[in-house]
Amino acid sequence: MFQAKQIHKTYLSNLKSLLMVFCLIGFPGIVCAQLYEDPVEMKNKLKVELQYADYGEYEYPEPIVFQYGSTPYQQNQPYIANFPEKRVLLKITRLVGSEAALGLKYQFSDMREDAKQHFTELRLTRSLNESVVGLVTGQFIYDSRKYGAYQWGIGALWDINAANSLQGDVQYYYRGKNAEPVGGKLGVLNLRLKYRRVLTLSTALITEYSHYNAKGDATTFNSHGVTVWLSQYLPTNTAIHLNMRYYTNSLGISSLAPGIEIAQYLDWATVLGLKYRYYRNKSNNVSFGEQAIIIPDGLRSNSFSIQLSREMTPEFLLYGRYRYYSSNLSVKMNTYMLGGVYSF
């Protein structure tokens, strides 16, 4: 009897470690304590996030103006448009029958004093067969600078087999002429493909390609982006994710962004996540059309984040994140985020 109990205990321990491996390397179809973004899931969920950012340093270099010309001097702002000072997110996903899920997402972003955005997304996810999940999305953005934008998309996730999966989506973004503060009319066709390959029981490789075709009043360009992730699970219940992203477009902007993520199971219900990202670019100080915002040449930035996730109950996941960002444009900022996911 003692031997049978020991065998059963060893089996459960091995099964637990195996599930941790699947979770940490992102194996499809396994439900785990989440570290970052939600996967495509067919279950009832309620997600809430609160985020706040403060600036330890946020300065503009003072201009040296020897004489005044006919055009007033205008000081360009550092490029931090993607970092809202305050953000509130609410997302609910509800099963519709046994093969479909309907998701509604609302997000409010306080970007800065003159820019606040309301974002709404409706998403339908449906199992097309045993290995393919399709999705349709519709998004609407309203900006306090008196303009709106729309985006529609379709996509699919194909689990080819236990070791391979392929995901793709096509999206179209449109805003009208009343979006003058950010460059006026713009239409963008976006294509994205992602392939995941489980190389061994403890190693996974993901590659992603994205393409943008943008045409508008203030700017027209094509862009290409390639990202590669290599994930390795270690016997210490640790996963290391190495990634590299290369981006280039027809306006003369190119960038390289290597990064590393470490996920550590502290116990069965608690995950500690560490993430570092370095970014550098080459540019001709071009603009995508937003007033007083340019993409400067030689931009260098570093960002570091730490996240702690805890399954409080089998239904409720609580997590908190701290992020530090600095760049050579005299911008330093701290971001704090608290979130929770309730499954029902």
Tags for this entry?
344 residues; mainly beta; disordered N terminus
First-last Cα distance: 39 Å
In the CATH scheme, the class would be Mainly Beta
Overall helicity: under 10%
Mean pLDDT: 83
CATH architecture assignment: Beta Barrel
Count up the domains: 1
User: What is the string of SSEs from the N terminus onward?
Assistant: HEEEEEEEEEEEEEEEE
Let me know the largest β-sheet: 16 strands, antiparallel, barrel
| CATH topology annotation | Porin
Class per helix and strand makeup: mainly beta
Radius of gyration: 23 Å
Q: Going across the biggest sheet, name each strand in turn.
A: 1-2-3-4-5-6-7-8-9-10-11-12-13-14-15-16
Query: What is the count of helical runs?
Result: 1
Task: Let me know the CATH homologous superfamily.
Answer: monomeric porin ompg
Bulk shape: globular
Instruction: List low-confidence stretches.
Output: 1-13, 59-76
Count of β-strands: 16
Strand coverage percent: over 45%
Detailed description of the structure:
- Strands 1-2-3-4-5-6-7-8-9-10-11-12-13-14-15-16 form a 16-stranded antiparallel β-barrel.
- The chain has one helix at 2-24, and strands at 45-58, 86-95, 100-112, 115-127, 132-143, 147-159, 164-175, 186-200, 203-216, 220-234, 238-249, 254-267, 270-282, 300-311, 316-327, 331-343.
- Strand 4 (115-127) and strand 5 form a beta hairpin.
- With 344 residues, the protein is mainly beta.
- The relative contact order is 0.15.
Summarize the structure.
This protein has one helix and 16 strands. By secondary structure, it is mainly β.
SSE topology sketch:
Layout: H1 2-24, E1 45-58, E2 86-95, E3 100-112, E4 115-127, E5 132-143, E6 147-159, E7 164-175, E8 186-200, E9 203-216, E10 220-234, E11 238-249, E12 254-267, E13 270-282, E14 300-311, E15 316-327, E16 331-343
